[in-house]
Design goal:
Structural class: alpha/beta
Helix content: 25-40%
Largest sheet: 8 strands, mixed
Order of helices and strands: EEEEEHEEHHEHHHEEEHHHHHEHHEEH
Strand content: 15-25%
Distance between the termini: 14 Å
Strand order of the largest sheet: 5-4-3-2-1-6-8-7
Number of helices: 14
Number of strands: 14
Length: 397
């Protein structure tokens, strides 16, 4: 079975065609600047790189070009579109309705539309991608895989905010969390690497990248996660502020004369390690600046590491223990120094890092010290494969 995984942004589209017999990607691609001048598709299949620069007025044109690229006589990886058994679509927000991935139908699309208010930047693009594929592949099963689904097992006390209850019943204001597909994939992989059933483990997953979140996975179920109603809450991130006193919002709006949109932009686009360091939102740039003696760059890293460490401690308390700590995503997989700094001082929890084993980037390996009570893993995330697995399971049913 070959499954096409589609991840639509407002002006972009990422895709992979995965052979589920081997779980290997036959082709990976990125379409950029959809509806904007300079539209381009880049596809990689093994050593082959295929680039198409042509106007793309909308996502339907982009999807058509993707399908053409996959069956291209010179650069394609399949001979006919009929080889694609199903399409798995990443959808950011499913609200409270979906704790699992589902087959696309009219009701599902309607529910995704209703969640636009909770993910105004992402859900509309996800819907466009689904509709584009439906028009071009009307007889191919479509599955939606929600970023929020994995976190729907959180108990009420974990997802409820202490606001008037009608804010929840009227507007759906509660913790939803993001990165669920990634947290699910790495927690399952960690259990496999330990040779144990995930239902017997307490796993803490740290998805650390430009966007970052932690999740407490207790016996296979997420019981808490750091992102909230939106991706703004929780850890310090590339450009997002993460947790802060909410009274700062009206204070700064008055002090700086900011509109609602300007304040939202400040918290989402100008804060995080970019705001503290003044250097960049890219942790590599900040690490380089810190190594050259830049105090604000070092402070940004210290604030980030401290916040992750606090979440680890609180989630160990929430789960009543820990068997396994996982680092994933761009920074979690590649920053040797960040993993070391985050684990420092956690030895009393039984978390002991082996600095020699930790000298690794982008590989699925154990980095815990000999005798460490808690296993520590670096696991490259693979959200596309998780989407493909869910899609195959649902289609086969």
């Amino acid at each position: 079975m070959k499954i096409l995984v589609i991840n639509c942004g407002s002006s972009s589209l990422k895709y992979q065609l995965i052979d589920m017999e081997t779980e290997k990607a036959l082709a990976k691609g990125l379409v950029e600047r959809i509806g904007i001048e300079g539209s381009i598709l880049t596809q990689k299949a093994g050593e082959d790189k295929y680039v198409i620069e042509t106007p793309m007025k909308d996502h339907q044109v982009a999807v058509e070009l993707v399908l053409n690229a996959l069956v291209d006589k010179e650069h394609g990886v399949i001979s006919d579109m009929s080889e694609i058994s199903a399409v798995g679509h990443r959808v950011v927000h499913g609200g409270e309705k979906y704790a699992n991935s589902v087959l696309v139908n009219d009701d599902v699309l309607k529910n995704i539309e209703e969640c636009i208010k909770l993910a105004p930047l992402h859900n509309p693009a996800n819907i466009i991608g689904i509709n584009a594929c439906k028009k071009l592949m009307p007889n191919t099963p479509m599955v939606t895989v929600f970023d929020t689904a994995f976190h729907q097992t959180m108990p009420e006390q974990a997802y409820m905010y202490a606001l008037p209850y009608e804010m929840y019943t009227k507007h759906g204001v509660r913790r939803y969390g993001m990165h669920g597909t990634s947290h699910k994939f790495v927690s399952l992989t960690a259990a496999e690497m330990m040779g144990k059933d995930i239902k017997d483990l307490k796993i803490l997953t740290c998805h650390l990248g430009n966007g970052a979140s932690c999740s407490a996975v207790d016996h296979g179920k997420c019981i808490d996660t750091s992102m909230g109603l939106t991706p703004l809450e929780g850890l310090v991130m590339g450009t997002r502020c993460g947790d802060m006193d909410p009274a700062i919002v009206p204070f700064l709006m008055k002090a700086e004369g900011l509109s609602i949109e300007e304040m939202d932009n400040l918290m989402n686009k100008k804060s995080g390690v970019l705001g503290v360091s003044g250097v960049s939102s890219d942790f590599r740039d900040i690490e380089n600046a810190a190594s050259e003696g830049n105090h604000r760059a070092q402070l940004a890293l210290d604030v980030f590491h401290y916040r992750v460490k606090k979440y680890i401690g609180s989630y160990i308390a929430a789960m009543g223990g820990i068997d396994c700590l996982v680092f994933t995503a761009g920074l979690g997989e590649n920053s040797i120094s960040s993993r070391e700094e985050i684990c420092k001082g956690l030895e009393f929890f039984g978390i002991e890092l082996d600095t020699e084993k930790n000298n690794v980037r982008g590989k699925a390996v154990e980095v815990s010290a000999e005798g460490s009570k808690v296993k520590i893993f670096v696991i490259p995330t693979n959200e596309e494969l998780m989407i493909a697995r869910d899609t195959m399971e649902i289609v086969n049913k």
